[in-house]
């Protein structure tokens, strides 16, 4: 990596740390669950220095499935997710309540 790229990366990391520190200081409730349809929740937990309190870490759901899960939240949480053995993906896919598909693209196995 060139010296200019290293300096730029270092500058960006310092700026991100400054933003993260400011956001952490302003945060009142540190026991939160972020419900996101993609990896964004995990990134926010990292930025805020919080414990991962979400069933939605490192996964992806289509917008349609995400809304369906939210509209049927209690049933979605209380229904076992089963592996979609017909999924044509290089990562595991699960099926939950009402056929909602959960893509575990950061996991090697369904287990």
Textual characterization of the structure:
- With 111 residues, the protein is mainly alpha-helical.
- Helix content is 43%, strand content 7%.
- Strands 1-2-3 form a three-stranded antiparallel beta sheet, with no helix packed on it.
- It is flat, with a radius of gyration of 18 Å.
Roughly how many Å apart are the termini?
38 Å
Q: Give unreliable regions as ranges.
A: none
Which geometry do the CA atoms define?
Answer: flat
* Mean of pLDDT: 89
Strand order of the largest sheet: 1-2-3
Number of helices: 4
Q: Give the biggest beta sheet.
A: 3 strands, antiparallel
The Cα radius of gyration reads 18 Å
Estimated share of beta-strand residues: 5-15%
Output the structural class.
mainly alpha
Give a count of the beta strands, DSSP E runs of length 2 or more. Answer: 3
Q: In percent, how helical is the residue content? A: 40-55%
Element order: H for helix, E for strand: HHHHEEE
